[in-house]
Design brief:
The chain is of the alpha/beta class and 134 residues long. The chain is built from 5 helices and 7 strands; from the N terminus they run βαβααβαβαβββ. The mean pLDDT is 90.
Length: 134
C-alpha cells in the first residue's frame, strides 16, 4: 500500500481562492487506510474548508483513485472549477491529466510503501525519495 500524510492546511488554503467551487476527491483504498482519505478524510477536509469560508460543491469517493478508467466513470458527476485531491501522487496525476481545464490541488504527500505488521498497524517499509526540486 502507499503511505500518505496530509499536507498542512495552511499550504492547501494558500492555493485556493474564496471564489473557487471546490470538488473534494478522495481515495477509498490506501489513503483511507492511512486516515488521510476515504469518507473520514472527505468530512474532515470539508469541515476545515467551510470553516475557512470556502465553498465545497461536491465530494467524490474513489476505490482507488489511481485507476484512470474508474476515474473517468466517477468524474461524470464532477462539479466546480477546482479539484482538491485526497490521494497519493498517482491519483493526483490521473485527475490532473483528466481535467486539464480545472485547477487541481494535492491535499496529501506521498511518503512511501507500507504494510501491516502482526498487530495490524501500518508500518513504513520503504520511504520514497523526493523528486528533484521538491
Amino acid at each position: 500500500m502507499i503511505i500518505t500524510e496530509s499536507k498542512p492546511f495552511g499550504m492547501i488554503k494558500d492555493k485556493l481562492k474564496k471564489t473557487d467551487k471546490i470538488s473534494l476527491n478522495a481515495c477509498n483504498e490506501c489513503a483511507k487506510l492511512c486516515g488521510t482519505g476515504g469518507e473520514e478524510g472527505l468530512k474532515n477536509m470539508e469541515t476545515k474548508l467551510k470553516e475557512a469560508g470556502f465553498e465545497v460543491v461536491n465530494k467524490l469517493l474513489f476505490a482507488p483513485l489511481c485507476d484512470k478508467d474508474l476515474d473517468k466513470k466517477v468524474m461524470k458527476n464532477l462539479k466546480g472549477n477546482t479539484i482538491l485531491v485526497l490521494a497519493c501522487d498517482a491519483g493526483f496525476y490521473n485527475i490532473k491529466k483528466l481535467f486539464k481545464n480545472k485547477k487541481v490541488i494535492p491535499a496529501l504527500d506521498t511518503i512511501g510503501l507500507g504494510a501491516f505488521d502482526e498487530s495490524g498497524d501500518i508500518k513504513l517499509v520503504r520511504r520514497f525519495e523526493p523528486s528533484p526540486g521538491e
